[in-house]
Write a structure and sequence with these properties.
It is a single chain. The protein is built from 15 helices and no strands. The protein has two domains: 14-34 and 109-240, Ankyrin repeat-containing domain (Serine Threonine Protein Phosphatase 5, Tetratricopeptide repeat, Alpha Horseshoe), CATH 1.25.40; 36-107, Alpha Horseshoe (Serine Threonine Protein Phosphatase 5, Tetratricopeptide repeat). It has helices at residues 14-25, 30-33, 39-44, 47-54, 57-65, 80-87, 90-98, 113-120, 123-131, 147-154, 157-165, 180-186, 192-204, 218-224, 228-239. The model is unreliable at 1-32 (pLDDT under 50). By secondary structure, the protein is mainly alpha-helical.
Length: 240
């Protein structure tokens, strides 16, 4: 077996191989798929977007008192709350939600503040987003995923723990046919970070038997990649 080629096993058929190769080629590069406001966008912002980016809670209150729309959108569909989340502006986030902003709004790429914080590994902003009413199970991104799937992909253990404790769905299947368990193996590197996330998912009760569209389970993928620690974890879980 050759690792790192994008197709580390022999497919059952040429068609299955083409389907899988296509899925891997389209696999989400979660960190780069999100688009935070650029320096030019930040410089051009006015109103609530400008105040949110700067963490200007007093300015936000004044604008809301003047009937500014708390869910106004920029050119990429970001609300002021999205902008505040990208910048880690906690007080701005609190003020916006208190003033009526939708904590579960999606931007044009279908990201919410939970997934923005998750991808950035910003645990403080993630905890705040959940406390403000953002749902950990929102279906987000062009891949119909969740923040937990993003955390599994990236090996974000601290983020995964917060999401699991917050009730994030463990077995959501995205539009590539992958769960958080599958992404931790397929898009992980078999190292400590991804092993830790895999362990959290297994211990929380994620279904280790859920297979991808080719019928391959997380254990099958771990074996194909010779990910020893993942294999041991998944084999033990399968025996329970």
């Amino acid at each position: 077996m050759t690792r790192g080629t994008g197709c580390p096993w022999r497919p059952a058929s040429r068609l299955a191989g083409l389907v899988l190769a296509g899925a891997l080629a389209l696999a989400p590069s979660v960190g780069s798929a999100q688009i935070p406001p650029s320096p030019d966008e930040l410089a051009s912002y006015t109103g609530l977007h400008r105040a949110a980016a700067r963490g200007d809670a007093d300015g936000i209150r004044q604008l809301l008192a003047g009937r500014a729309d708390p869910d106004a959108r920029d050119a990429r569909g970001r609300t002021p709350l999205h902008v505040a989340a990208f910048a880690g502006q906690a007080e701005a986030m609190r003020t916006l939600v208190t003033g009526g902003a939708d904590a579960n709004a999606l931007d044009a790429q279908r990201y919410d503040v939970v997934t923005i914080a998750a991808v950035r590994g910003d645990v403080a902003t993630l905890r705040l987003a959940l406390a403000l009413g953002a749902r950990p199970g929102n279906v987000t991104s062009p891949y119909d995923g969740t923040a937990l799937i993003a955390a599994a992909h990236l090996g974000q253990g601290d983020v995964a723990r917060v999401l699991i404790d917050g009730g994030a769905p463990l077995d959501h299947v995205n539009n590539l046919g992958w769960t958080a368990l599958l992404e931790a193996v397929i898009l992980g590197d078999g190292g400590p970070r991804h092993v830790a996330v895999l362990r959290m998912l297994v211990d929380a009760g994620a279904n280790v038997g859920l297979a991808d569209r080719q019928g391959r389970t997380p254990l099958d993928h771990a074996r194909a990649r010779s990910y020893t620690e993942m294999i041991a974890l998944l084999e033990a879980a399968a025996r329970r």
